[in-house]
């Protein structure tokens, strides 16, 4: 996929599809890059910007901490959560429940087993090939909006029934 490709979220499938990505994906917290990879997966679902799942090896050692709570996705199964934590000069910087993963995802999503998705709104910033990501609106979904992704997007006011 080239950067020049424009994608409408209304062309994404339902149920969602997972695909590999070789884009440089980075996550920053506390002024530090806490994850970086050229080998992630994008989950693409109608009306949603892509959600990126990063292999655990992309994260700096010690930045992922188990968090409480679980949720259920009708497509991917039971999600577990992690906090992202970095040591700062004034103490730890913590992004509570900023990441989630599927230990045993549903059939069709096995490739993302254990990989961690990050909620862009809960960290300093996320980038895709150097472009700063805009978080999907609403605070519930974890989509990553870049210039090549066009909506409208589910998550904002009035979109709950989409």
Automatic annotation (TrEMBL):
InterPro entries: DUF427, DUF427_sf
Pfam families with a match to the protein in the record: NTP_transf_9
Domain DUF427 residue range list: 25-120
The protein's name: DUF427 domain-containing protein
Organism: Nocardioides endophyticus
Higher taxonomy: Bacteria, Bacillati, Actinomycetota, Actinomycetes, Propionibacteriales
